[in-house]
Amino acid sequence: MTLSWQTILAIGTGGFLGAIARAYVVYFSNKHFSYDFPIGILFVNLLGSFLIGALFAIFAHYTVGDSLKSFLTTGFLGALTTYSTFAIESFFLLETSLFLGISNMALNLFGTVLAAASGYKLLLFFVR
């Protein structure tokens, strides 16, 4: 991959849209679910992991330009998912509830790996 101005623009545009998507998902999940557990961040991390797995399965079988790959993965999914918010929310949960803190960490860690693998395997099934 070359870091041309088109690739940089694609990453920036994807990041802009991914960050907005994350803000909406987190806002609506907090509006409809309890504040005791950061379900919105868990959801975007699981969704983003599933989608990146699916995209890599597509990339393995189809030729996709560097700008589009960068837009989707580094840009959109990089901004949609978040590690820093996961880290601080886990810290605060651990201070109030060991069970919720460990649950959040386990669901994010194992859930995102499982989601990425599921997305990859599911899309491989359909593109073969």
Number of strands: 0
Distance between termini?
26 Å
Structural class: mainly alpha
The global form is globular
**What string gives the helices and strands in order?**
HHHHH
Largest sheet: none
**What percent strand?**
under 5%
Low-confidence stretches: none
Defining key terms:
single chain; 128 residues; mainly alpha; 5 helices; 85% helix; 0% strand
Describe this structure in words.
The chain has 128 residues and is mainly alpha-helical. It has one domain (5-127). It has 5 helices and no strands. α1 packs antiparallel against α2. It is globular, with a radius of gyration of 16 Å. The relative contact order is 0.19. The model has no long low-confidence stretch (mean pLDDT 93).
